[in-house]
Amino acid sequence: MNEAFKPDTTERKAPASPAPPEPQLEPEAPAPLRQPPRRRSLLLRIALVVVLAAAAVFAWQKIEKVETGAPSTAEGPNAGRSGTPPQTVRVAAVALGDMPITIDALGTVTPFETVTIRTQIAGKLQELGFDEGQIVKKGDFLAQIDPRPYQAALAQSQGQLAKDQALLAQAQSDLDRYLTLSKQDSISKQQVADQEALVAQDKAAIITDQAQVQTAQLNLDYTHIVSPITGRAGLRLVDPGNYLQPSDATGIVVITQIDPISVVFAPPEDDLPRIAARLNSGAKLKVTVFDRANVNELAIGTLTTYDSQVDPTTGTIKMRATFDNPKGVLFPQQFVNVRLLVDTLTGVALAPNAAIQVGPSGNFVYALNPDSTVSKRDVVTGAADGKRTTITSGLAAGDKVVIDGVDRLREGAKVTVVENPPGGPAQGADGQGARHSASGADGADAQGHRHRRGQNGQNGGGDSPPAGGAPAPAPTPAQGAAQ
pTM for the whole thing? Predict the structure, then answer.
């Protein structure tokens, strides 16, 4: 019986336990279990970054310790293994010399005289008496205007003058007779007075005729045009055969004085007191002009004078220098670079420009000590040129300063001095040879060191380590021996 009822039971249980609907399975339980792996990966990355940063800081501290401890460790027997090798440098001696005080400015070649030749009368241009580019002297023939109308006018004026002179002679003769008769009471006084008036009129007419003759003669002279100055003739502006008038916009030719010639330049107004004081003392200030590229020297002259007022728009004052120009090296309106020698300092301490470094507290140099170490010295600089700088205080003649290899120098650092290479410029008294003997790479390093110190500080504060966190390797002893 039990078996007979099983199908019924099964049939009754089937509707009682329906399958759970699918929507009740949302959200799925396994999804939250995937988050812990991502968090662990992120934590591992953060931990790795922290470890690398700590390693970098530790390595940097080690490098700084080695650099700052180099002078002290170098004194031991194992200095070559425990410390940084001595920096290879070149030095130059501070010497006494002369320093010129110069002022550079831009200038324009300006002639003293420039004349545009024009006609002063109307007429046909018959002839030109010059060649283009010719040097003409004062009084040389330049052009000829048709003189025939003016010759006729002159002859007419001269004829009128002769006629009036004859009338005056006749009137004067009559007056003389009337005066004689008047004394004899043979004629009336009224007749004598009229004759005197006629004589006066004839005299006035002669004066007018003489003026007309002079005018006609002057117009005739104007037909023959001559040069008023000595200079160079430019290109002709009109050809023969043209009818010229005084109102023409263009002339016949332009004459420009070439020798002597001047250069006008405009230095800053701040330099005027020193320049004026030198001129007023009777000194002749030397002026040198260079070409547009400021490379080739063109001429040497003297400062003549300066303008009567300062240009308020530019803050400069115009000055004129005079130059002898027999070969025509300076050409009118040419652009030139001007160098004015104001004064010369004699017997001053001079150091090469490459030795001067810039720091937050001002200028300084690295001076070489007798024990092959360097020390930083603050210096006060004065006038400078392209190669040397005047040292007002901080150095004395004979002191040796580092001019090459200053990149990683510190106070008290050990150095190895390298002499100039064979065939290079010898070390001169003014330090110029040392500056020129430095290689291009070393010169670039020295300049970069100067700029970095000026921006970031000195004695370790401004030099950044090379890529990778390691100090730049010093030259090996073999390289120093080769140099």
Answer: 0.59
Give the C-alpha separation, 121 to 260, whole Å: 32
Residues 299 and 415 in one domain: yes
CB count within 10 Å of CB 428 equals 17
Say whether both 455 and 309 belong to one domain. yes
Question: What are the DSSP calls for 298-342, one per residue?
Answer: EEEEEEEEE-SS-BTTTTB--EEEEE--TT--S-TT-EEEEEEEE
The domain containing residue 395 runs over which residues?
86-112+258-463
Residues 266-275 have pLDDT tens digits of 999 999 999 9
Tell whether 95 is covered by a domain: yes
Residue 19 DSSP label? P
Instruction: Tell me the average pLDDT across 430-444.
Output: 35
Number of independent structural domains in the chain = 2
Report how far residue 456's alpha carbon sits from residue 461's, in angstroms, rounded to the nearest whole number: 6
242 plus 210 within the same structural domain? yes
Burial of 26 (0-12, 13-18, 19+ CB in 10 A): exposed
**Calculated CA dihedral for residues 389, 390, 395, 396, nearest 10 degrees:** 120
Dist CA 111 CA 183 (whole Å): 73
